[in-house]
Amino acid sequence: MENEKVFAMPFKSVFPLLIAKAEKKGRTREEVYEVTSWLTGYPSAEIDQLLEESVSYGDFFRKAPHLNENRDRIKGTICGVRVETIEDPLMREIRRLDKLVDELAKGKPMEKVLKY
Length: 116
Fold this sequence. Notes:
Elements: H1 2-8, H2 11-24, H3 29-40, H4 44-52, H5 57-62, E1 77-78, E2 81-82, H6 89-105, H7 110-113
Antiparallel strand pairs: 1-2
C-alpha cells in the first residue's frame, strides 16, 4: 500500500527534491537531468514538459520512452534497501533513479555514475 502512495505522488513534487539533493552536494540540475534521461529515455525538454503537467511519479516511469537496457546493473543500497532485491518492478525503477542521484551527490564523476 505504501508503494501506491509513492506511485501517486506528483512528479513535479518529487523531481525538484532529487535536484535539490544533488545541488546541495555541489552537483547540477543538468546532471540530474542527464541521469534521468539515461535511465528513462526522456529527453530534457520532455522532462520539463512533464514537470508542467499533473503526471504521477509512477506514470513517469510507466510511460518512460525507453528504459535503459543496462539499468539492471544498478546495484547497491538506497535508504537501507538493496536496489536489486526490491520486488515491485515499478518501485525498483524509482529506487534506481534514487541510486543514480545518490551517487551524483556522493561526488562520483558522471562516467562512474553511468558506468552501467
